[in-house]
Amino acid sequence: MIEGTGSIHKPFALVHKKKFNLKQGFFLSLIRTFGFAGALTLFVILFFVSYNGVHVLSWEFITQPPVEAMTKGGIFPVIVGTVLLTVFCMTLVIPIGVTTAIFLSEYSKPGLVLNLVMMSIYTLAGVPSVVFGLFGLGVFVVAFNFGMSLLAGSLTLAIMVLPYIISTSEEAIKAVPYSFREASLACGATKWQTIKKVVLPTAMPGILTGVILGTAKVSGETAPIMFTAAAFFTPGVPRSLLEPVMALPYHIYVLATAGTHIEETRGIQYGTALTLIVLVLGMNLLGIILRSRQRKKRAW
Amino acid sequence: MVEKKHIFEIKDFSIYYGAFMAVKTITLNIEANRITAIIGPSGCGKSTLLRSLNRMNDLIVTSRVEGQMLFQGVDIYDKDTDVIELRRRVGMVFQKPNPFPSSVYENVAYGPKIRGVKKKSHLDEIVENALVRADLWKEVKDKLNDSGLSLSGGQMQRLCIARSLAQEPEVILFDEPTSALDPISTANIENLLQELQKTVTIVIVTHNMQQAARISSYTAFMYLGELIEFGDTDTIFVNPQNKLTEEYITGRFG
User: Fold this and answer.
1) How many domains in chain B?
2) Mind telling me how many Å the CA of B85 is from chain A's nearest CA?
3) Comparing A276 with A229, which gets the higher pLDDT?
4) Minimal Cα distance from B160: which residue of A?
């Protein structure tokens, strides 16, 4: 500025005194409140369950079977039951789900049939889990005569989680850049070699995330195993696929509603719930870590 | 006069996408161990023609061809042609460098590995040889296990060239290989291509006319799917026979 000329412009004319905008302020606080409410709910539940359950947690609690009509002792067979159900279920689901996803994203031709298949899968993913439970009862328990068993329960859970695994795997496979496939084919690779050596390894972290979140979902479900696999009480761990099992979610349900010692077993109920939450959150955490590592590695 | 060896003989060749005729009855011979450039404005069908040379166009479901295209005297579009073997012998490098998200070594070893080369010492030899030929060995020999995606743009493109060279191709097709690169990397690639033509036939699609003029022996000018003019690069650029060619290379449209 030239000295002595003065200025006819007000300096910093763009800076207004901050005015409180009522409408904007209202919606902003509303959004904040709702945002925190979601997080708060989780923490309240976690705190509540931990507060009530943490005192029963001990090495004995997770390694000993229940005794004295389940009013004392641990939940070892219950944990084993849930782990077995989950492992058998995922062993079935992963190959079928990933293969289906490969077919849908790499081999199927766009058209009516594909649309129909996709629509069925998405609809199936939205069916309430108790419907799968009834289906499992009708088909695996009764028609296939597996009875209430580890096998029937795993199959039912498998059918429930299959659409989820298919759709997450398909998305992971579709996210692999086309240029990778092009590069591989231009190297003289066959379509299958391209899928095996380039597409699947690149999509693997995404597929794994889906698998882990699916596993978490399976291990926490009650309704699908209620009529197909879960027993009120078994004297120990199952010795065959055709035996019923105890499972964490059903155990909580049983102790809290169907037992004769509901009040005395409150501690065990919360302890079981806490074990289940730790199991599921642990798997979710693993999924989140895998996903963030995948995002860091991604450079295309 | 020495007999010229034509590695590709293209006769009355057309490519359709559905009802759209992208390449219109082109007749053209490509000489071995030379650089042939295909130039022309966007959408003129030059990339389509290039991609038909190793049947990468097959990936577009609606595409269909007419006419004849011979590679070493064999009809590429014959139903008995082994497309996999064709693509091994006719490699391709793309516009955007596209190394796989794996190590430098794995990128170059990809082709040989899928063809069943297992012996480590043999693979090492192929990888080193390809990287040397792609003029990248000196820069990456100490970081063969680093991700191919960690290299610079120009290095990535040379890695893609090395990956192609590892399959011992007779031809490499380049689809605007330097359009995503800086001038120095571009110059490196151009020098590399001139060196490579001694052992490999090169067909390059480029938007950059100076590039075509600098490095190619032959130039084809395409416009709206037709081959307008084809000949010695010197002739095309100094003394074009067709008015359209002249207008394009003097920058009056493009």
Assistant:
1) 1
2) 6
3) A276
4) A183
Q: What's the confidence (pLDDT) of residue A72?
A: 74
B212 is a domain residue: yes
Closest CA to A124 of A176, A79, A161, A85: A161
Domain spanning A59-297, CATH class = mainly alpha
**Is residue B132 domain-resident?**
no
The CATH number for B245's domain is: 3.40.50.300
* Alpha helices, H only, A196-300: 200-220, 223-226, 248-253, 266-297
- Confidence label for B140 from pLDDT (cuts 50, 70 and 90): very high
Mutation pick from B98, B150, B164 vs chain A, by most beta carbons of A within 10 Å, is B98
Q: Where are the alpha helices (DSSP H) in B11-103?
A: 46-52, 83-89
CB contact (8 A) between residue A109 and residue B61:
yes
Q: Is residue B12's pLDDT more than 90?
A: yes
**Interface probe with A: pick from B82, B84, B160, most Cβ of A within 10 Å:** B84
Q: Is B99 on the interface with A (CB under 8 A)?
A: yes
Q: Which of B51, B62, B87 to mutate to test the interface with A (most CBs of A within 10 A)?
A: B87
- Domain with B230, as residue range(s), is 6-98+169-249
Domain ranges of chain A: 59-297
**Secondary structure letter of residue B236 according to DSSP:** H
Cβ proximity of B67 and B12 under 8 Å: yes
Q: Do A299 and B100 touch (CB under 8 A)?
A: no
Nearest Cα to Cα of residue A43 among A220, A268, A281, A271: A281
> For chain B, what percent of residues have pLDDT higher than 90?
85
Which tokens is B66 given?
């007419």
In a domain, B116, yes or no: no
Residue B139 falls within a domain, yes or no?
A: no
The model's pLDDT over A155-198, given as tens digits with 9 standing for 90+, comes to 999 999 999 999 999 999 999 999 999 999 999 999 999 999 99
Interface touch B100/A193, C-beta < 8 Å: no
